[in-house]
Write a structure and sequence with these properties.
Blueprint: H1 2-12, H2 19-30, H3 34-44, H4 48-61, H5 64-77, H6 82-98, H7 102-115, H8 121-126, H9 136-148, H10 153-169, H11 173-186, H12 190-213, H13 217-230, H14 235-250, H15 254-267, H16 273-283
Length: 301
C-alpha cells in the first residue's frame, strides 16, 4: 500500500516545479526522512501543492514555525485549500500545546485567523492561558494579535491578564493597571479575578511607593489608598498603609499618619516586620520625611 500511495504522489507531482526534487521529497517523506523531504520540497518550487507537502513534512519534523508559515501560505495562495490549511494549523496547534511550545501555538492561531476567519480560533487562543514560557516582549507583540483573533470573552480575559503581567514584568505598572481593571470588570472567572486583584494590589503599591520617593505625595496617597483598600489585612495593604501614613506626615497631617501606622501595628496577629515598621514610625517624635520606600519582597501571583 505504501508503494501505491507513493506512485500516486509521484504522478501528482508532475504538474509544475522540479519533478525530480519533488519525487525525491516524496521518497524521503515515505521513508520518514522529514528534514530531507523539506529540503527537496523547497527546491521543487512554490506551487500550492508543494507548499502543502512542505507544511506537512515540517510538521512531522517538529519544525513547527516553518510548518505554520507554510500552512498559512497555502491558505493565502489558494482559496480552494483554506480548509486544508486551517486543519493543518489546528493539528499544529495540538502538537504545540502538547509539547509546550507557546510560540508555535500563537503562530497557529494567527495563521487560522488569517486564512479562515470563520474557524473557531478563539477556542485555541483560550488554551494559551497565561502564555507561560514566553518573554514579556513576545507577549506584548503576540497578545494584541491574538485578541483580534477571538471574540470570545472567556478566551480574551486570560490573554489580557497575560498582557498586564508582561507590562508589570518590564516595570510598567502604569500600563498594567487599566488592563487589569478592565479584566476585573469583565470576568466571572473566580481564580482569574483573584489573580487580577492580587496583581493590582502589587502594582498600586509599587506606583504609590515610587510616587512617594519622587515626593509626589498626592499621587502617592491615591495609589497607596487604593492598595490598602484592595488588601486591608494583607501584607500589601499594610505596607501601603505605612506609606500612606508617610505621605500624610510629609504634608503635616500627623494625626492621619498615626492612625494609619496604628492600624498596621494592630492588624498583625503575630508581630512581623510591618508591625515593627509601624511601631518605629509611631515612636518617632517627628516623622522622618525621607521615609523608607522599599517595597515588600516581590511575590508573583
Amino acid at each position: 500500500m505504501r508503494i501505491g500511495a507513493g506512485l500516486l504522489l509521484l504522478v501528482a507531482g508532475c504538474g509544475s516545479g522540479s519533478p525530480d526534487r519533488e519525487r525525491a521529497g516524496d521518497v524521503a517523506w515515505h521513508t520518514g526522512r522529514w528534514a530531507d523531504a523539506m529540503v527537496d520540497y523547497r527546491a521543487a518550487g512554490d506551487a500550492p501543492r508543494l507548499t502543502a507537502k512542505l507544511a506537512d513534512a515540517a510538521l512531522q519534523a517538529g519544525a513547527l514555525a516553518e510548518s505554520a508559515a507554510a500552512w498559512t501560505k497555502l491558505g493565502s495562495d489558494d482559496p480552494q485549500r483554506t480548509g486544508e490549511a486551517a486543519a493543518g494549523l489546528a493539528r499544529l496547534a495540538d502538537l504545540a500545546e502538547r509539547d509546550g511550545k507557546p510560540g508555535a501555538l500563537v503562530a497557529a492561531v494567527l495563521g487560522i485567523r488569517r486564512v479562515a476567519p470563520s474557524w473557531p480560533a478563539g477556542r485555541l487562543a483560550g488554551r494559551l492561558g497565561p502564555i507561560a514560557g514566553m518573554t514579556a516582549p513576545d507577549i506584548a507583540v503576540f497578545v494584541p494579535a491574538l485578541l483580534a483573533a477571538t471574540a470570545d470573552r472567556a478566551a480574551a480575559d486570560p490573554l489580557l491578564f497575560s498582557l498586564a503581567l508582561a507590562h508589570r514584568a518590564r516595570g510598567a505598572c502604569d500600563a498594567a493597571v487599566p488592563v487589569l481593571e478592565g479584566v476585573l470588570r469583565r470576568t466571572v472567572n473566580s481564580p482569574l479575578r483573584d489573580s487580577v486583584v492580587t496583581t493590582l494590589g502589587w502594582c498600586e503599591l509599587g506606583l504609590g511607593l515610587a510616587a512617594l520617593q519622587a515626593e509626589r505625595s498626592g499621587d502617592a496617597e491615591r495609589w497607596l489608598d487604593r492598595a490598602a483598600t484592595r488588601d486591608p489585612l494583607g501584607a500589601v495593604g499594610r505596607r501601603a498603609l505605612v506609606g500612606f501614613g508617610d505621605a500624610r506626615a510629609r504634608q503635616g497631617d500627623s494625626t492621619a499618619a498615626k492612625v494609619a501606622w496604628r492600624t498596621v501595628a494592630a492588624a498583625g496577629a503575630v508581630p512581623d516586620t510591618l508591625t515593627q515598621l509601624a511601631l518605629l514610625r509611631l515612636a518617632q517624635i517627628a516623622p522622618v520625611l525621607s521615609s523608607d520606600t522599599t517595597p515588600l519582597h516581590p511575590v508573583r501571583p
